Structure formats: structure tokens, C-alpha cells
Amino acid sequence: xxxxxxxxxxxxxxxxxxxxxxxxxxxxxxxxxxxxxxxxxxxxxxxxxxxxxxxxxxxxxxxxxxxxxxxxxxxxxxxxxxxxxxxxxxxxxxxxxxxxxxxxxxxxxxxxxxxxxxxxxxxxxxxxxxxxxxxxxxxxxxxxxxxxxxxxxxxxxxxxxxxxxxxxxxxxxxxxxxxxxxxxxxxxxxxxxxxxxxxx
Length: 200
What we know:
Helicase, Ruva Protein, domain 3; five-stranded mixed beta barrel; 20% strand; 200 residues; two-stranded antiparallel ribbon; alpha+beta; CATH 2.40.50.140; 9 helices; 48% helix; globular
């Protein structure tokens, strides 16, 4: 099985990369969150520039084999890969479904919601259905150490609702909140998210 691939990006789309290493181009499926991280990187002077074609990259790989298909799923760090592999072990969640879940809420937030058994949080923030949320909690809760109180999860929900009341869509609000430091109070979350949404 392929565990990681290091090479240069020769094609980048909204759903996959082709990374060339030793003369072979590998098609690697990626999450929207991974794609957004690829768009910028620090350049050593406090600035960010786009991750360009022909730049080298290291991806941690999950190799998904079926009878007639071999698919590769790539992640920028092992934490993302491990959580992805936990998700696909939940009955009814395949690799593409797991990628979608990874793309709409941070891993830390998802783990803490699972650890506290907060079905309402999972359905509201991630957009997954109640039955799926219950399955995820039942099958993964014992594997995850909860590190966030229910009160702080409620704070994130409150921030989401506040942003929606200001006219932002749920997806816009979720994306902005993913970029805010997790251990901040509700008002700070809202202020920082508004800065991100306004492009400041």
C-alpha cells in the first residue's frame, strides 16, 4: 500500500491533484479543506503566496481498493489521514463522504463534538443528517478523547447563528469559523469571523 507521496504538482483541480514522482503521475483525491490550504503557504516574510504547479509537496496517502478501482486520498498531515480513516470505518460512510465531512468542519471541532456526544452540533455545523451523526458518535466516541466542553461547543453554534443573522450563508459562516482559533469566546469568534468574511 502507498503510505505517502512526495513529488511535484503537475495538475491541480477542485477535487484532485496529480503529483509526479520518479516519472509517474499519481491522481490523488483531496478535500476542499486541503485545497484551500494549498492555495496559500508562508514564504518566510509573513506573507502567503499560492502553491504553484511544479512545486514539491508531501501528502500522506490512504489507498482505497475495491474490486475494479484503486483510489488515492491525500492529506497534508497525519492527523487528517487518521481521522479520515476513522470516518470511513463508520458503516455507511465511504471515502467521498468522509472527504465531504472533512471539508465542512475542522477535525478538532468534529472530534470534540463526537467526544461530547453532541448530535445537534454535528448536524447543524457539518450539515450531515441526524442518523449519520448518531452513527459517527456511537462508533467513534470511545476512540476520541473529548477536549471541549458542551458550553464552548454551544458558543460556536451561537457564533454561527449570529453570522447567519447578519446575512451570511451557513457555508460562509462555517468556513470563516474554521479559521478562527478554537479556544476563544463567542464574541471574539464573531469579530474574527467577520474580519475574515470582509477580507480584512
